Amino acid sequence: MNNFVISVANSFSPSPAGRHKGDGPFPGEVFRDSLLIPALRSNESVTVDFDGTEACGSSFLDEAFGGLIRQGGFTEQALRKILHFRASRKSYEAKVWKYIHEAGLAS
Amino acid sequence: MKRLSDKRKNWLDLKCDQDQRRSEQLARQQRHPKNSKNSLRNTTVIVSIPAKLVAELETHRLKLLDVVHQMSRALQNPRTRVKLDFSKVERMFPGGTLMLLALVQLHVELYPGRIKASCPPGSLPAQLLRHFGFGEALGIPLQGNSPRHPDVINWEYLTDEWADGAKVSALLGKYRELINAELPDDLYAVLTEGITNVRHWAYPTNCDVPHSMRRWWMFSRYVEPPKGGLGNLFIAIYDIGVGIPETLSAKLKLTEKVVEVVEKVTGSHHLDKTLLAQAVDHKRSSTGQTNRGKGLPEMKEFIQNTEGGRLYIVSGHAQYSCVPAENYSGAQKCHIAFPGTLILWSLPLKEKDEHHE
Question: How far apart are the first and last CA of chain B?
């Protein structure tokens, strides 16, 4: 199984912030649409590596990952099979899956 | 008959001279009312800045708001200039200083060239105004006022229209290098949430704030520890937008709309307190969408996880305070409307954990 690794710090920004395209230079929407969705559609497995980034806020995380359900058309079940995380901050993975789950409930 | 003392006699002579000069001036004005020099001369109104610049305590905040009102009222007259007198300032705290300087900057933008400041040479206010880049606009000379005092150089100042994480990261990076203490892990997250909220909500399209001023301001100040202790980091974010209660008013329930109408008549403003508390406790958002409105609750959770930390949010007619060490969190009503929104964190720092280095 090929695993594609996205290093948020190296491929996007070590200091991402904001939700929508107009918020700032590196918001969640841009990360999702330009990096995350193309990777998820082209690979059997994708690992998002948060090491080297500042602690991302809820707006960034919710738009980037919750938006996979709302805008990207993914389901939580499908994402659970292909999306993985690498982060020294243990709370990250739980937070992201919470946003994905909430987006799934609301959709 | 009682004999006059020399002191009393001198005072009476001086008073007579003043009265005579005043009479002559009035007589001149009556003879030539249109050509009176006084009607053509610019006047300067001196506005005295209070001794303590504190925004999170209402008594001090009211004094700062009064300064802003005095400045605004004076500048309505096109022949009036304003001089901000900082000579009585004793203590400058991030929240109060930030709020005052942001509103001064707004007025400088609206009334260019009509506002100046006066500070004792070399004083902390003079150095701080130069340090923050306000010196040129307010007429504070560099000579003698270059920032050098530790209480000045440990302040940082940021402002922008965008939610640019790189600026916040650079600011936190300076403190990480400067101080031998650990910054709270989620500090970057809550600060960027604060500036993202400004971007999303503070300035609706139809608000009166000039486009160039639709921004956020951030101050941070590190207070060095006394011998043997750990320092404290104070950070404030301010915007001059419409305020949190106003942004939530678009989603009022019917009963709340009735309350809003009644409060506009009675001037009681209890609804602002309720709305602010619900926003921080994540019981509602401006959009009504469940995935939004997480920023303020995230800030509260952060301070609850930061030992000894404090959080203050002032907006509209309300202030929300969270002081976990005192087991207190809740909103209070403010008697005077606060322009915009101020969020202030007080963060005791802890020693770096050497095992993780």
Answer: 90
ipTM for the complex shown: 0.95
Q: Give the span between the Cα atoms of B168 and B174, in whole angstroms.
A: 10
Compare all CA atoms of chain B with the CA of A98 and give the residue at the minimum distance.
Answer: B291
Which of A54, A56, A91 to mutate: most B Cβ within 10 Å?
A: A54
Alpha carbons B356 and B23: distance in angstroms, whole number: 80
DSSP string, B60-126: HHHHHHHHHHHHHHHHTSTTEEEEEE-TT--EE-HHHHHHHHHHHHHHHHHSTT-EEEE--TT-HHH
**Encoded tokens for B203:** 């300035």
pLDDT at A28: 98
Distance (Å, whole) CA A32 – CA A56: 14
pLDDT for B260 equals: 72
Nearest to B162 among A24, A60, A102 (CB): A24
What is the C-alpha to C-alpha distance for residues A90 and A86, in angstroms, rounded to an integer?
9
Q: Indicate yes or no: CB of B164 within 8 angstroms of CB of A70.
A: no
Parallel, antiparallel, or unpaired: how do β-strands B216-223 and B155-160 relate? antiparallel
CA dist B347 and B43 (Å) reads 45
The shortest CB-CB distance from A66 to any of B162, B193, B291 is to B291
- For chain B, positions 145-164, list CB contacts with chain A under 8 A: 162-164
Residue B357: per-residue pLDDT: 39
Chain B residues with beta carbon closer than 8 angstroms to that of A66: 291
Host H or E run for residue B336: strand B328-348
**A73: pLDDT strictly greater than 50:** yes
Nearest CA in chain B to A106: B290
